[in-house]
């Protein structure tokens, strides 16, 4: 992207200081780098929106293993 390309920071959208998108044709790209608080905040917002709109489904992301250090048991 060009150096003068308009960038809106995520905190500005959350704080209602800037619109994230102006139309359905706009594209949103979220790149939080490695700042864990922004990751957590984005995930909490996404979860709240999903629950609020009653979409998606709950899946287990952490497997139940007898030996948590041996992920190879998942291959069987």
Verbal overview:
With 76 residues, this protein is mainly alpha-helical. The protein has one domain. Helix content is 29%, strand content 0%. It has two helices and no strands. It is elongated and about 50 Å long. The termini are far apart.
Instruction: Bin the strand percentage.
Output: under 5%
List segments where confidence is low: pLDDT < 50 over at least 5 consecutive residues: none
Count of alpha and pi helical runs: 2
Specify the overall morphology.
elongated
* Distance between the ends: 46 Å
Number of domains: 1
- Which sequence of SSEs, written as H and E, runs from N to C? HH
Question: In terms of structural class, how would the helical and strand content be classed?
Answer: mainly alpha
Topology, number of strands:
0
Quick synopsis:
With 76 residues, the protein is mostly helical.
Topology record:
Elements: H1 10-14, H2 36-52
Q: Tags for this entry?
A:
76 residues; mainly alpha; 2 helices
């Amino acid at each position: 992207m060009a150096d003068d390309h308009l960038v809106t920071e995520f905190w500005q959208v959350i704080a209602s200081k800037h619109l994230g998108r102006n139309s359905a044709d706009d594209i949103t790209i979220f790149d939080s780098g490695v700042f864990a608080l922004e990751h957590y905040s984005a995930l909490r917002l996404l979860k709240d929106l999903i629950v609020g709109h009653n979409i998606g489904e709950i899946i287990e992301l952490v497997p139940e293993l007898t030996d948590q250090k041996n992920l190879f048991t998942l291959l069987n």
